[in-house]
Specification:
Layout: E1 25-31, H1 38-46, E2 51-58, H2 65-70, E3 79-83, H3 90-100, E4 105-108, E5 114-115, H4 119-125, E6 132-141, E7 148-152, E8 162-163, H5 166-171, E9 190-192, H6 193-198, H7 211-221, E10 226-238, H8 240-243, H9 249-262, H10 270-298, H11 301-305, H12 312-336
Parallel strand pairs: 1-2, 1-4, 2-3, 6-10
Antiparallel strand pairs: 4-9, 5-10, 6-7, 6-9, 8-10
Helix pairs in contact: 9-10, 10-12
């Protein structure tokens, strides 16, 4: 496994020497207000010999994200930074980056994450016969004083490379308590461009949550060959604020609607249909919890109680959430006495 041999907060754009390889990958970075981390992300991508171009789309940032990204340009026409006047969302920003890119392989990188040396070469070495190749990740806890790394294994991933089919992928996106951000939708694969173009696949621009899950799920339904490998060198930055981030009810409803759409596919097998139904139910539980909160804030008894009648699964989830919420409030009251 590649070790974390570059400083976690490195922002110097030192690309180093590259091996004599033919670049075949474009790295796509959609970023908004990532001025504090974008140089690290761009520099790590440019350091990979297999990367032909790094395409950064600044999604209407209010800070100096674009300027800092451009600082990494040492010539050679390997960096393209496009700044949008207003935010269009992560899906649309990635689609713009896709249209700019030209290489046969695309790699997704978030603006606060980065690659360790050798990651792209590692994934390409496993790419023959596959359309998507993704890896387990390292998590970087940036709030930790020692910038602590820890392995981040996704739901059901073994220590050996293995293919993932549609049903496995969908079930691997069901959120599990105490395993935040371990769903398959968080993986960042290299993607064969020809497959996306053949099937006219792009990110769903109506989504601001679950856009990766949706693209990968649709690709798998269309026959994409998907390989997962052990840690290859993708570092995912985690901050305390990111763990507590909450999505809107509308965001979750749109993600739930993706499952409803996929369930209309007549070619689904029984196991695929069960997996989708389970994922739909998981997302709907979160939707209904936000509905309960809305009813409470509105002081509407009918709106508060209505979600409990939706299904036994939802009712059990809501009761569990209420118990946890009440227990948390009781602990906080005791702590202030």
């Amino acid at each position: 496994m590649a070790g974390p041999n570059r400083s976690a907060d490195q922002s110097v754009c030192d690309h180093g020497e590259r091996e004599a390889v033919v670049p075949s990958v474009d790295v796509l970075i959609a970023a908004r207000d990532r001025g504090d981390t974008i140089e690290r992300a761009v520099a790590s991508a440019l350091a990979e010999a297999e990367v032909r171009t790094v395409v950064v789309v600044d999604d209407g940032s209010t800070d100096d994200t674009a300027r800092r990204a451009r600082k990494c340009d040492l010539g050679g026409n390997r960096l393209n930074v496009e700044r949008l006047d207003c935010s269009v969302g992560p899906s649309a920003a990635r689609n713009i980056a896709m249209e700019i890119s030209k290489s046969p392989w695309l790699a997704i990188l978030d603006g606060d994450d980065f690659f360790l040396p050798g990651r792209i070469g590692n994934l390409l070495s496993n790419s023959e016969g596959w359309d998507f190749v993704a890896d387990d990740q390292l998590q970087l806890f940036e709030d930790h004083p020692d910038h602590e790394f820890s392995p981040r294994r996704f739901n059901g991933l073994s220590s050996e490379p293995r293919p993932v089919n549609f049903a496995q992928f969908v079930r691997g996106n069901i959120t599990r308590r105490n395993r935040l951000r371990h769903e398959f939708g968080f993986i960042k694969p290299i993607i064969r461009r020809s497959f996306l173009d053949q099937h006219s696949l792009r990110y769903d621009e109506s989504l601001r949550l679950g856009e990766d899950y949706t693209l990968y799920a649709r690709a798998l339904l269309m026959g994409a060959r998907f390989l997962l490998v052990p840690i290859a060198g993708y570092v995912s930055a985690v901050r305390a604020s990111s763990l507590s981030a909450r999505h809107s009810k509308q965001d979750l409803e749109r993600l739930r609607d993706v499952d409803r759409e996929l369930l209309t596919n007549k070619r689904l097998t029984a196991s695929e249909r069960r997996a989708l139904a389970a994922h739909y139910g998981s997302v709907d539980c979160r939707v209904q919890w936000l509905a309960v909160i809305e009813g409470f804030k509105e002081r509407s008894i009918s709106n508060f109680l209505a979600p409990f009648g939706r299904s036994p699964l939802v009712s059990a989830y809501l009761l569990e959430q209420l118990v946890r919420e009440l227990a948390g409030r009781a602990r906080r009251r005791r702590a202030t006495k």
